[in-house]
Design goal:
Organism: Corallococcus aberystwythensis
Number of strands: 52
Helix content: 10-25%
Largest sheet: 17 strands, parallel, barrel
CATH architecture of the largest domain: 3-Layer(aba) Sandwich
Number of domains: 4
GO molecular function: cysteine-type endopeptidase activity
Protein name: Caspase family protein
GO biological process, one term: proteolysis
Structural class: mainly beta
CATH class of the largest domain: Alpha Beta
InterPro entries: LA_2272-like, Pept_C14_caspase
Distance between the termini: 63 Å
Length: 753
Amino acid sequence: MRALVILLFALGAVSSAHAAEVRRLALFVGVNDGGPERVRLRYAETDAKAFALVLSELGGVLPQDRVLLMDVDRAGVLAGFDRVRKLAEGVRAAGARRVEVLLYYSGHSDDEGLLLKGQRLDYGELRRSLEGLPADVRIAVLDSCASGAFARKKGGVARPAFLVDSGIQVKGHAILTSSSANEASQESDRLGGSFFTHHLLSGLRGAADVTHDGRVTLTEAYQFAFHETLARTERTQGGAQHPNYDIELAGTGDLVMTDLRATTAGLVLTEPLEGRLYVRDAVGTLVVEVQKVSGRATELGLAPGAYRARRELDGGVSETAFTLKEGMRTPLAPGDFLGVGHEATVMRGGGGGATAPLSPQGRTLLPVNLSLVPSMSTNTLRAGRAQVENRFALGVVNGGAALGGGLALGLAGNVYDAEVSGLAMALGFNTSGREVDGAQLSLVANVAGGAVRGAQATLGLNVANGDVDGVGQLALGANVARGSLGGMQAALGANVTTADATGVQLSLGVNHANGTLKGVQFALGHNSVAKAARGIQGSVLLNRAPSLTGMQLGLINVGGDVSGMQLGLINIADTVHGMQLGLVNVSDEVHGVPVGLVTYEKKGQLHLEVYGSDVQLTNLALKFGGRHFYTTLLAGIGPDDRFQRFSLGLGLGGHIPLGSRFWVDVDVAGSQVLSTRDPFSGRSNTLLTQARAMLGFQVMPKLAVFAGPTYNAAFTWGEPEFTKLTTLPVRTHTLDADTRMQRWPGFQVGVRL
């Protein structure tokens, strides 16, 4: 029993000007726990995250327009609907011409409703919540047991696997279900998810693009998922699964689900390629499954990164590894695949003498190589200039075409023209013309011509001219990955990756990811990210990220859109959803808590107040900060004491709105009381501390009046310059032989400009 998927929907294939007026909102819910009487699912939450990823990459759903909920109960799902409703109302009020909603739920259900951690959300309430969203189009996809019952609630009946395209002008709803009203929906350990969701996502990534126009419509996605799900479940223990639907749409044009051109990278399955293909990402997750037919090219929309593909054809199995780079379409042809599990062959002919066997890559397989330099080695003596592959190499400088799953020990270095699979160790340097699948260990430098899946460790420099996955790069000098990072970079000097970084960068100097960071950066010097950071940036000096979800911890933190926390002496950001905690906080807008000695928010408070009090007749206060927290600078002087004293102070407080016109400010402040006769003598020995409450009334947008009580405590040392600061009665306390305190309740009245 499985995933309820809700709401997937559509992209309008119209002009870019019109597309700019469309906002797509999405709610994704994944719940493994259906209650004590239900078997706990393994992949409901995984499916919800995968669905959200595809729609973010290819479906036009912006990060701020999606709500992702994991392991929630009935109230949590309804709260998610409420959040989406408020988002829809906001974008509608902002002038969006068209609002489209996508909702996905993955979890348990029966023929009456969703089963959430022992609670039921019946289909009637679910439909009302869906119809209550202020959107032009609502699409629900239910991947759960007996989910066809939801599609039938308004008269839907089982139909063949066919949908009529509607499109950008369409209004109404479409509900797709993974099974009929009396069928179980199934998930698979081999797929790492449900059958229906897996095949639907494969279709959305391009496997369903039968028209080869770079876009996947609702019709194409449903037909692909229907046939693949039915075919792959006919022999399972749960029995055949028949996806179903209920459509009430009206309009013209195609309802586009995903646009493959939206991704910055792509995989092109060339015309000659055929067979069933399984594409997995760098961590082994199955992202696409497709039956490729020879004669027509197929494009799949995938994010940049490292992948492996497995092909099944005519009983044989072959594999290949490849890297998708940003801004490029990478072709995959039959010649890129190598057989899996084939034995080495022996070449016959020309007198019947046997030659060395060949590796699966077609190289001469020489298990052992002994060398002084590559040109003076057993490889050269036995194979001449032929491409060779070794399992073990020992010498001053080892060299050859490739190291295949073995060990190379070089006194000075190891130099390979092709890939290194295994361990290369040298006192000097290691170089590989292509990827490294294993480790390079040296004292001076390691260089890989392609991706590194494993580790590079040196006292000097590590360079990978491709992606780095695995343990990562460790150096006292510097680490450079000319691709993405999926692991760790640790150096005393600098760590640099020219693409995304998923993992950890640690250095005493500089860390830089020229893409998106998902993980941790720690440095004594400088951390920077070119695109976005999701994790933690920590440094003694400076952290920079155009977009941050997580935390920045450093002397100076600079962020664009920050969701999380900035903790430092100086924090600078555009929009903050969370907290700024520092000596100085600067931002355009804060949805949260800015706490600092000096806080400036462009869309927050900036007021000048003029007021009188029992301490001094004339006072000025400059208040600035966020919407609810502020810093105030105070200055006052009074003609009542013949201008003999003045005060300068600083306060911190909070602002509480009371409706549209009234408000309350509460703060604490401290002021130094100085003599006007000799203000710079340094002899001032009076400190005034105050707790203040101000009730204000907004007369007009730029004018308010306020009044309120204060509680004052004045501390004096030695011979006080001023014996009393107020005309009101005070209580005097002697704290020690040299220190006295006066305290009293007071008042203040003023205007705010």
